[in-house]
Amino acid sequence: MVRIIDRFAFEVQLVAQDAAGTAAAAPAGDGGSGDFLSPFLLPAGLLFLFYFIVIAPERRRKADEAKLMAAIKKNDRVVTIGGIHAIVAAVSADSDIITLRIDENGNTRIKVNRSAISRIVTDKDSSGKENQTDSTKDDG
Question: What is the pTM of this model?
């Protein structure tokens, strides 16, 4: 594997020097300047790709989730990770517990962790779903 990488580095050096109009370089095994860098190019490239494909999007997702958790306020319509649709009855900025009102009368309340909230339902989301269910009822 090392010989293949050395050979590839040697050929890249040849192409670069031919393009510049200089004489051909010595093989990489003869103590050329590419001996030290060539084994580190592939792992460095893989780490670079791994960062931008895996780590950076995960950081962005966690930051968006933190903004969502910080933006929860009283009377927001939310959906929990268990699929419960509810309205926020009480929320404290310093507490990790949120009280949700489940029924329309406001008598049934549950306390959940802030991390159990999956999403905040906006008016656009709820009205679009109601319109879809109404149109399917008319067709049937």
Answer: 0.53
